[in-house]
Design goal:
Largest sheet: 10 strands, mixed
Radius of gyration: 19 Å
Helix content: 25-40%
Order of helices and strands: EHHEHEHEHEHHEHEEEEHHH
Number of helices: 11
Number of strands: 10
Distance between the termini: 10 Å
Oligomer: single chain
Structural class: alpha/beta
Strand content: 5-15%
Length: 336
């Protein structure tokens, strides 16, 4: 079984095309970046710089979702990390390099809830002020009060992805432990109202399907489809097992990952890794305070990983081997 993406956009081809235009408008640079993002990776090619940078504004979270490594107290993912909230100076260095190299996309999130960082909206304004083409973030929506909604709209954030994994209060709160369903729904509706007829931000809801909520997927889609711009459904990957499985005991599948050919991920303390699934930082290639994004992107560590994927030897990297196995199981469970 060749591993497919473990998420999908729930929309017709016409709607997908319309939404792409809503994001990119008449700017040819946007469509070139989106084309290169997939086309170069599929051909095992890279540009001089990454096409996407993820800046971890926070590695802590206010929720303990059932499918997330943050809920596993026994997994020492973040316990050795001294920096939990990215400093404004660190973020400025990242945004400045992205702007200087004309890197088209910058995401303000990763392992934690980004809005826990009190500088979140300032970071957003700074990145957009630098002229970065696409500035986005993902949030659980719990902290997205009216003031933050107004600042997001005023800053013209390009896209905000909101994770919400249930159509009823009972199901949602069973998965999103620590969240208040009514409060999150109110926050989403506030953002929709404040944005009004503006194009920014493009609002996407992300629904992680599992055994707990799959009976509500259809109802969720029917209700939110006309209220937000886009809905994606992802299939639950057990991130927690990344730290528990023995790589030598994990089967090998037909697999290659696009991420080493697309992006860099920067942790709150400036450590740089290659992959957004590398929640334990096992594939670290350096630190932005010791090197530039350009040099890290073209360095020997990341090139070795690319060669492993290009030649079908991804399993030589223990993290990649376990990740491929988890993605295989997620798609198998989803019947894909």
């Amino acid at each position: 079984m060749k591993i497919k993406k473990n998420w999908e956009i729930k929309a017709s081809l016409l709607t997908k095309a319309r939404n792409l235009y809503r994001k990119g408008g008449l700017n040819p640079a946007f469509y070139l970046y989106r084309y290169r993002f997939s086309a170069l990776a599929d051909k095992f090619k890279i540009g001089k710089y990454p096409l996407d940078v993820i800046a971890e504004t926070s590695n802590i979270c206010n929720l303990r979702c059932t499918m997330c490594f943050q809920s596993d107290e026994a997994l020492p993912v973040l316990k050795t990390t001294k920096v939990s909230l990215m400093a404004m100076d660190t973020f400025k260095k990242i945004a400045d390099e992205c702007a200087s190299y004309k890197i088209p996309a910058l995401k303000l999130n990763w392992r934690g809830e980004p809005m826990l960082n009190k500088n979140f909206t300032e970071m957003l304004r700074y990145a957009k002020g630098k002229g970065i083409l696409e500035v986005t973030s993902l949030t659980n929506g719990t902290l997205m009060n009216e003031n933050i909604c107004r600042e997001i709209v005023a800053a013209k954030m390009d896209q905000l992805v909101i994770s919400i994994d249930g159509f009823t209060k009972e199901t949602y709160e069973k998965i999103r432990v620590g969240a208040d369903y009514d409060e999150v729904i109110n926050n989403i509706n506030n953002l929709i109202g404040i944005r009004g007829k503006s194009r920014k931000p493009f609002i996407r809801l992300q629904y992680t399907e599992s055994e707990i909520n799959k009976h509500e997927t259809s109802s969720f889609y029917q209700y939110w489809n006309k209220k937000v711009d886009e809905i994606t459904v992802s299939y639950c990957q057990d991130f927690g097992s990344l730290g528990k499985n023995n790589p030598d005991e994990v089967p090998i599948h037909s697999f290659f990952c696009q991420q080493p050919f697309q992006r860099l991920v920067i942790m709150a303390d400036g450590t740089v890794t290659v992959c957004a699934t590398d929640v334990m930082g096992d594939i670290s290639i350096g630190n932005i305070y010791e090197d530039s994004l350009e040099h890290l992107w073209n360095g020997s560590k990341i090139n070795k990983l690319r060669e492993q994927h290009k030649s079908g030897r991804y399993y030589e990297n223990s993290m990649c081997r376990i990740c491929a196995h988890n993605r295989f199981n997620a798609n198998k469970q989803a019947g894909r």
